[in-house]
Design goal:
The chain is mostly beta strands. It is 9% helix and 36% strand. Strand 2 and strand 3 form a beta hairpin. It is an enzyme of class 2 (transferase). Its EC number is 2.4.1.207. It holds the Pfam family XET_C.
């Protein structure tokens, strides 16, 4: 989809038709445990019990653009469970952008963990709680990706930015097409209080619900070259417009607020894991 003129972040996205959602089976298909899917019209539910979790993946792969879906997380005691929503390429040197929703005991907040892998290297976790209860209603979770930045958004509020700092010698994910995935699974060896709180299977099945599937991105088929998804003199992609190269002033204020009030862990400040600060942390603006 092309946009000949940069007309602002939110207005631009609205004009590009991101308000309309596709049906699940237009974009995705079950990847495993088909018998743990529940279909209720446009609503999809994934079920985790002591036999299996479940997961789905996109039918296509993409290079740059924006993916969104609305998710309602497991209600009640969800300790030990993880609902993952992410983009990933293939192979040992893959790129990946993760949302991982870490369950907790009743009354404790869900933690949202984000992570970025570049050329197979991850360990870039940040964790935060949210300014709402993500188990009571659907909320939109999005990943915006272009040649300048990767932005994680919750209800269109940015919660993390991974900027392109190749000029500092830091690799940036820009040349591997990615699929879109989501799953629910048992991770009680680490998910809740570092694995101290285990999954209580008497509360199973654990249900994560999905709707509002949106992908506005450059679809890439096997063997196609990456330049297909980059703007040139004869074609313009909205994600390459100048307004998309960095956050707006309002979005910067939102990001500062979120991190000041809800960030509970940042790998950049974890001196036990990283006695020497990772290079990109020296250049983060937030």
């Amino acid at each position: 989809m092309y946009l000949p003129l940069a007309i602002g972040f939110f207005v631009g996205l609205a004009l590009l038709g991101l308000g309309s959602s596709a049906k699940f089976d237009e974009l995705f298909h079950p990847a495993w445990a088909n018998d743990h899917f529940i279909y209720e019209g446009d609503l999809i539910k994934l079920k985790l019990d002591n036999f299996s979790g479940a997961g789905f993946s996109s039918k296509s792969k993409y290079l740059f653009g924006k993916v969104s879906m609305q998710i309602k997380l497991v209600e009640g005691d969800s300790a030990g469970t993880v609902t993952a929503y992410y983009m990933s390429s293939d192979g040992p040197y893959h790129n990946e952008f993760d949302f991982e929703f870490l369950g907790n005991t009743t009354g404790e907040p869900y933690l949202v963990q984000t992570n970025v892998y570049v050329n197979g290297v991850g360990n870039r976790e940040q964790r935060m709680n949210l300014w709402f209860d993500p188990t009571k209603d659907f909320h939109s979770y999005s990943i915006l990706w272009n040649q300048r930045q990767v932005v994680f958004l919750v209800d269109e509020t940015p919660i993390r930015v991974h900027a392109n700092m190749e000029h500092k010698g830091i690799p940036f994910p820009k040349d591997q097409a990615m699929g879109v995935y989501s799953s629910i699974w048992n991770a009680d060896d680490w998910a809740t209080r570092g694995g101290l709180v285990k999954t209580d299977w008497t509360h199973a099945p654990f249900i994560a619900s999905y709707k509002g599937f949106e992908i506005d991105a450059c679809e890439v088929s096997a063997g196609e070259i990456a330049n297909k998804c980059k703007s040139s003199g004869v074609k313009r992609f909205w994600w390459d417009e100048p307004t998309m190269s960095e956050l707006s002033l309002h979005q910067n204020h939102q990001l500062v607020w979120v991190r000041a009030n809800h960030l509970v862990y940042d790998y950049c400040t974890d001196t036990a894991r990283f006695p020497v600060m990772p290079v990109e942390c020296e250049h983060h603006s937030h």
